[in-house]
Write a structure and sequence with these properties.
The chain has one domain: 4-Layer Sandwich (Purple Acid Phosphatase, chain A, domain 2), CATH 3.60.21.10. The chain is globular. The protein is α/β, with parallel strands linked by helices. The longest helix has 17 residues. Strands 1, 2, 3, 4, 11, 12, 13, 14 and 15 form a nine-stranded mixed sheet that branches. A six-stranded mixed sheet has the order 5-6-7-8-10-9, with helices on one face.
């Protein structure tokens, strides 16, 4: 049994004990799980949640936020000498802001405001990117990636502190063992949504022997144990963010496909959203549940390969009640494009007449072919706008 699995099973046991404490009338008290380090006041744990909306709720999720130096140069120019990434990302604000739950993937650790800032191979990004993510509407970010521990435990702490300060929830890395064991549960229109995040590894770096909980490493049983812990803590829906696959390869690997099948055959996991390849990969329905193998980059500036690394998608899923359970009844993909300009701007190609016409047409054609290559269209996946 891995150390991560022992942590998750301990969390599951603790949550089950809490859930087993009945009130005087025999009913179960609702569970409220905090996302920060400090637990909420006892009274907050006893308050009944608002009733779940009969209209369901919408989740949007997007690809890698990978802050290369060229993006920081653009942000500094946009901010008149101060780093401001909001103009770069503004093109997707309407789509992200309209979601009931918006999930990003912050791949790079953050530096202090004074730096130093670094790009590949060991990233250290300016903290102002978090302000931009909050401004365009993100509620939550996954943080388990192959770059999570580029700057060690200090980088993890800076990153999570910055997300906390901006009011963005997070999962995938932790500042303490206690935080690592605590499932992330977000209430969306009265529905409790759990979010878990795992990465394939850390570019050859090892987790500190005294801090094995610093970031989550992909293992099928660990992922399932984390989903079970989230369910025990009250989650009615569980979303798994997975940092996996092969960079710049648009076909999912055998390992991705096998893992997706195993996880989506487990009743505790409802949706998989994938990252890392930096290019768009297919969507597919398995056991009645969706996997987006790879959403490409949300924002990045690779020197090579150009073209496909500037293309991505925003995935949008609408959950509806099905008896006592929740499932996706509508799934969309919205192509996006990093226009290298200058200036560098992120474009939402689901909107009409956005982007240079020839580049737009090329992106839409390639994205459609890749996303739908495993039969997702026949399974109900649609692209707004055509």
């Amino acid at each position: 049994m891995t150390r991560m699995r022992r942590l998750l099973l301990a969390s599951l046991s603790a949550a089950t004990l809490v859930a087993g404490c009945a009130t005087s009338d025999g009913s179960q008290p609702p569970i409220s799980v905090p996302t920060g380090l400090a637990p909420p006041p006892a009274q907050q744990q006893l308050n009944s949640p608002p009733p779940a909306s009969d209209n369901g709720f919408t989740v949007v999720a997007s690809g890698d936020v990978l802050i290369h130096p060229a993006l920081t140069d653009q942000a500094t120019e946009d901010g008149g000498g101060k780093r401001d990434y909001r103009k770069i990302l503004a093109g997707v604000k309407a789509t992200v802001g309209a979601a009931d739950l918006a999930i990003c993937h912050l791949e790079t650790p953050l530096a202090d405001a004074a730096g130093p800032f670094k790009g590949y191979p060991e990233f250290s990004a300016p903290p102002e990117i978090v302000d931009a993510l909050k401004d365009i509407g993100y509620d939550d970010c996954s943080t388990a990636s192959n770059h999570t521990i580029d700057q060690g435990s200090d980088g993890v702490k800076r990153t999570l502190d910055a997300l906390d300060a901006a009011g963005i929830k997070h999962t995938g890395s932790a500042r303490s063992e206690q935080e690592a064991k605590r499932p992330l549960i977000i209430e969306v229109h009265g529905v409790k949504v759990g979010h878990i995040s795992f990465a394939f590894g850390f570019n050859g770096k090892k987790l500190p022997a005294d801090k094995p909980w610093l970031a989550n490493t992909i293992d099928a049983e660990d992922i399932i144990a984390a989903a079970k812990a989230a369910r025990a803590a009250g989650a009615q829906v569980v979303i798994a963010s997975l940092h996996w696959g092969t960079e710049y390869v648009q076909e999912p690997t055998t390992e991705q496909k096998n893992l997706a099948k195993k996880l989506l055959n487990d009743p505790n996991i409802d949706l998989i959203i994938g990252h890392h390849a930096h290019v768009v990969q297919p969507f597919e329905k398995i056991n009645g549940k969706w996997v987006a193998y790879g959403m490409g980059n949300e924002i990045a500036r690779h020197s090579e390969p150009k073209g496909i690394t500037e293309e991505g998608v925003i995935a949008r899923f609408h959950f509806t009640r099905n008896g006592n359970a929740w499932s996706v009844d509508k799934a969309d993909y919205l192509p996006i494009l990093i226009d290298l300009g200058p200036p560098i701007r992120l474009l939402d190609l689901s909107q009409p007449n956005v982007g240079p016409p020839a580049r737009r047409a090329e992106t839409l054609q390639r994205t459609d072919e890749i996303v739908l290559s495993r039969g997702a269209s026949a399974q109900g996946l649609t692209r707004p706008g055509g």
